Amino acid sequence: MHDTTGPPxxxxxxxxxxxxxxxxxxxxxxxxxAGCGSVADAASGRRALxxxxxxxxxxGARMVExxxxxxxxxxxIELRPTTYLWGIPYYTKFLMGAAGGRAxxxxxxxxxxxxxxxxxxxxxxxxxxxxxxxxxxxxxxxPNIWNNCLVDGRLYAIPLDTHLIxxxxxxxxxxxxxxxxxxxRLIETTGTEDFTEMLRAVRDVTGQVGVxxxxxxxxxxxxxxxxxxxxDMSFDGGQVTMDDDRALEVLDFLRRLAEEGLAPTDSNGPAxxxxxxxxxxxxxxxxxxxxxxxxxxxxxxxMRPLQGIFGEPLTRGDSHAFVLPHRRTxxxxxxxxxxxxxxxxxxxxxxxxxxxxxxxxLPVTEDPAYLDLRPQxxxxxxxxxxxxxxxxxxxxSAAPLQNDAASIFSGVFSGAxxxxxxxxxxxxxxxxxxxxxxxx
Amino acid sequence: MTTHAGVTPAAAVPPAAGAARDRSPNRRRTSWAGLWFVxxxxxxxxxxxxxxxxxxxxxxxxxxSLGRDATSFVGLDNWAExxxxxxxxxxxxxxxxxxxxxxxxxxxxxxxxxxxxxRARRVGWFLxxxxxxxxxxxxxxxxxxxxxxxxxxxxxVNSGLxxxxxxxxxxxxxxxxxxxxxxxxxxxxxxxxxxxxxxAALQGIPAHVYEAAAxxxxxxxxxxxxxxxxxLGRTTALVVMLQLVASLKIFDQVYLMTDGTGGPDYAARxxxxxxxESGFPSMRIGYASxxxxxxxxxxxxxxxxxxxxxxxxxxxx
Lengths: 440, 317
Hints:
heterodimer; A: 440 residues; alpha+beta; D-Maltodextrin-Binding Protein, domain 2; seven-stranded mixed β-sheet; six-stranded mixed β-sheet; 17 helices; disordered N terminus; B: 317 residues; mainly alpha; MetI-like fold; 14 helices; MetI-like (chain B); Carbohydrate ABC transporter membrane protein 1 (CUT1 family) (chain B); transmembrane helix (chain B)
């Protein structure tokens, strides 16, 4: 900030003229008015509903589409959605708003973050009777997802979807590589050897790499494979408890993929999508949210759940969910509007499903319109076994543990760190987080 | 936010009159009236600056969190934790390295550009405009433009390098390069401010001094070293101090250019970003306050050391 010494002023007293006083008080009144975010628009009698979200990608466009429909069906409500940048910027905004008790009426979060965001202090419970009134109950959501929304038996989140790590395959390339079956689906593989054999065949066609991976966001893939291998992780009793042998096995597998040229050594999120659309790779392992990108690129591609590489085909999942940020002054009407909105969004999540996420609301997933939605419905069953992140305040999407892991594991792909070093550093980083006094 | 503390050269000049004060009792009475005039300012100053400073210091001794209501006094726990926290020291180190790398070019290039402008009077307006223009661009735009320029493959810098037959550089993806990339961007962006201070000072050097020196047979180099640079001494002291403080406060460019990650392996994460991460996304207000005060102490020490250094120089002259 700069103090600029303005134009030279004439010396002497400044008489406060009536005009200046008037202008000043008008400006002050204007500021005061702008400061009160009026909850109900008195003039039109419409209720304002403020929603905050973090969808800047292809899913953001889907949300805008749903909001347009919501507005047409709810002329009495003035929906005011605000999109913030995914990750730390969004959560900063959310936390600060909720800490002041004056956030929005309803906000999206990652379910994996729910327990670390200040239950009861920053997030208010969802009135289940009200939610049931609008048609969303325990019976309309998969049990594993519903249970994740409960803290001490009380509901704090309304799950919109589950998103997974999936395998995308380019049909043209895979056909040439001979890894498609007669129905045009990617062949089944079991185990590491089978999988790498397939990658070699694909690599021989592309001439570059077999599979496109996000080497700067490898937590998702690591956690999926580590869970497949039977690994577990917990932070109870101030200790990092994990299965070192299994973790090493997985990290060494990732190292081998990069070393053999089957996967890139250096690829961030956007590059991972670009490598698949530019046919640098014939396969891509990434979150299901890239489907819109690939459809826009006009690729002939299919999707399937992540293969069982180290055992059962388990895959990391997380859910986007709606929460009610803490209110300093209770407002039942606002809560009702917010819950009604969330239920409406769940019931209309067929549009949302087009963006790749698997709807959490069961009636939508059983709808023929969803089953016809290909390739989006081809991996829906993997949701039942979705592997959520380990439970801790520092764990979950865009949380410190994931950021540290992503940073450390990127060296395994580039060859800068050995799997053993990476594991040691991950353990150290996790222990550091465990030793940090919990803020919740 | 820009990286400069706001002081203009004019503000650094002490008021000329003021040494000779009329000390008659009559005068003293009117000075009491003055108190009422400063009261609004003093009240706001106390409310919005002094109290937050005290409250921040006190918060550093608690476990205050955004995520829960209860706050308790934890004594020196936060301070013990920060001493043992490697992230504090690595990010403080990044801030210091950034300051050490960015300050010399920001001062030297600013001076060089000012000398050039002072010389090339005919195109002066054009140089003034071009050298100062980047400083007017908001940080978000600067970060975005440079992020694209640093891109591998199609980025301006790397495609230039490959066109010359050189190897690509991972400007933002290589842990050894990322801080240097931010330094380059920052120099380009903010050097205009130092340039302006130097230019103003240069124009304040009377022409007759140069004339006299020229008559005595001093060449251009001699005139630069023996007249221009010594007469710019005070400005240099000011520029260096402002620059050190501004560079120590590095945050915006790094945060934006690394998409909030702090670079590969946190190689460019400055201490302010770590304070921000501890305080807001991680909700630990108490701990973040303690780290802020540690950093505040560092800034004070650097400023005092620098001030001492320049004052001694002035005296020895």
